[in-house]
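ASSEMBLY PREDICTION REQUEST
Request ID: AP-0331
Submitted by: J.K., bench scientist
Number of chains: two
Total residues: 919
Priority: normal
Notes: Please return the full assembly, not individual chains.
Input sequences:
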Amino acid sequence: MPDKLNGLFIDDVRREVRLYLDYLDSIYQIEFKSTADLGLKHLEDRYLEIDFVILDIQMPKPKDFTLSDLDSEKETGFWLLQRSRELLEENKIPVMILTNCKSKFIEETLAQDFAFNPPNLVRVREKNRISAKDFPKEIAAMLMEFGK
Amino acid sequence: MSIAPRPAVDLLAVFAEIGELDLGTSSRVDLLKAAARHIKDGTGSDAVEIAVTDAPTNDDPQLVSTDATIVSMPSGEVRNATRGESWWAGRLQAQDSKLTYREQTTYRDLDNDRGELIVPIRFTDAFFGAVRIVASRDRLIEREQWARCLYALTETLSARRLVAKRAERQKFYRDLVDVTSHEPSETSSIICRFWHKMSRADWTWLWLYNDYNRRYELAAFEGLPPPDDFVPRLDSAAAYAVDSGNVVMARGDFTKWVRKFKDREYRIAYAKLVNSVYGCKSFVCVPLEFPNATEHKRASMLPRIRGAVCLHYRDPHATPQQLLDSLSLMGRQCAQSIANTFLEEQRRILLRLTQMAQQHLTRVSRRPALVRAQYLKELIDLIRTDLQFQTVSLFYRRPFDDIIECVASTAISDKQLQRVADNRLHEITYRRDQGSTGKCFAEGRAYVVNKLDGDDQHKPVSFDIDPASGRPARGAVFCPIKQPRTTGAKPAVIGVIRCGGHRVMGTNGDGAARIGLHPVQVQTLELIAQQVGPMLQIFENNIRREQTISVVKHDLYSPLNMIRDTSERIADDLASGIVPREYDVKNLRVSHVIATNLVRQLDAEVGDQDEFHPEPTKLIGDILARVVNMLQHYAWTDKEMEILYNADDIINVIPILNIDRELIERTIHNVLINAIKYGRSNTKIQITARASRGGFLLDISNEGIGIEERDAKNIGQLHFRAETAKAVAQGVGLGMFIAKRAMERHGGQVFIHSLKDPTTFSLFFPKNLMN
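STATUS: Completed
Returned structure:
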């Protein structure tokens, strides 16, 4: 049996994603990180082993946060994407943004400020639209697009 | 046979010719020359000289002088007659500040043919002197007739001159009315030009006193500009005019000029320079003041003009022909005209600010921070263009911290002169008293630092950069933004507007003038700050409300999703014939509790009269056991934490209390949620009770990030969140605020018993709750 694919799950509220993790764990090897900077560090250290990333957008600000949106804490996920952009693109590591925010707002920001290459490298799913049970299917579909 | 002398007839012809002279606009010397020439030619004399000196208007020893200006015809020479002058000598004598004037006609033979007749004259009320006529002796026989005719001639000239002056004054006032149609920045120059023209001064300087840096600023000049480093000192003649409200006239030896007003002694500064280098032999300072002290008291926000017009002459006797009272009144009118143009501008700015407020406050936006940024950008543009500054930076307080941070700027650099990007403006901060910006923040008053001062010894935190040149703007104006005034309390400073690189106030054609900042500009800036203060506070509230809604919404999805996923799994389990897990059932219950509490958080006002229902309550049985039971599962699933308490111990210490169950439940819930949120994984939360002299304490302790000493005083304040907390979890800073208010509603309180490991919050219930 081939090794499980490795996923990095970055979300600040573990309890909230526990059920997602329950469903994912049976298929993938998931590493969970509860802050953006821990997640980024893990990604930078282990990017060769990581097959995909699941990322929350609205998380507490890391210390050297410099994204512009004034007082909003919404965009910590973008901060991580900005920092890891090259690494993600070069290694073709797909990212699934799993969030409580409106996906439209996130997609707009992604298109305007990031324009990832390939364009399907980062996609967005709203937690209230996709249940924990169905989530692994979304991941599988994404990985298939990247031949994983 | 000799020709009959006919001076009267000849002088009549002179009258007629003099009637052609433009008495209104000719300078005094030109007029005297013309008169001398007409007398000489009209009477066929060999030479005519007219000596004129100004009459002392009071017994001021500084104005007592026995010398005179003499014009000679036919040579056309103009000279200053001093004591040694042959024919003028002795006609005017000074003794103990009193002048005596010889009012007799004198005659002597010069040689066989010619004689010299000296006739005293008056030339307007402000001058007097004498006419010396050299003519053939037979023409000067009828001396009395000569004297009468010349006297009549000068009287006529005086009268006509007065009429011309009146017309000139009327024109001055008429022109003044039009000043208000000009830009405020041009008014000083225009008014300076009026004075220059009217007074026929050789050069005219208009100084305005700047309250904010306590110095005089050059507002405009005509003729020669002042020397580079020259500004009137606070004990100068100009300052005397301003302080005392009196017109100053000075001439001759300026070093002797001294005045006293309210215990201060005033002298003419730079006397040597103006005298020797500039060749100034007399000058006049006319005070400009509006509103006066009484009017100022009545309407303190009227644009305030204080200054002086200084008229300088090479001619030592060229004191202006207008009466002192007229000059004084003209000064006041000028000040009022300048003030009016500023008033007009201030009205325009206020109107624009109101429009901006309406436009931005009524915008429905999910991103109020962005709306604020747009408002601030417009505000900066308004200040920059209307008040003519090159740079504008706005600083606003950082909540719960005694510093102000930059929130908007035309362009700003750090101390290494590296331009700071817009998204990093907040990194430029000032503590109280840190540099001039910090000083303004601490003292709450506006002031000006001029580039000429060179007194800015501190190492600047930042520089405002002129976008055009890319260089730091020199000179700056600091204006505090204050909280709207509440009765009794001194309004707190909540921000600072810093403007730099102010442009010249007026232009004098060649543009070479070193012209300073108009003090009213600073006053207008204060007016703007007054309007901006409440706006910034409203924006702050909007941003916070939006943040609260956003966080609560985000947090609400969490229990809702949990309910969805858990119920789905329970359904799957039931379909497969499996008994639903206890874990999932608890999940559902906790989700309900969490969601309810989140919704309640939106209403931070707790314990209003109609919502406060105390009833006898057992802390353990009625509240604590249930809350802990719910959150136990939450703590475990989130961080594998445990919540521990000994029910018996608590029951033994805390009796039945008359409390509002819902409020106390919210309090305990909020404190416990925080203990979980900011606690370390795999640790325990302890709940214990103890009695004190005044009541009972419930202590809730955890091990986790702890509380920094500097943050302790702010915990429980509306929306306060410590930096350490922000780094760990999201929040809105309401939980502890609600807990504090709820306890206070019961006459108790929440306080921090221990900062770190354990971090302990104590809920204090006073003894009287037992009743």
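REVIEWER COMMENTS: The radius of gyration of chain A is 14 Å.
SIGN-OFF: pending second reviewer
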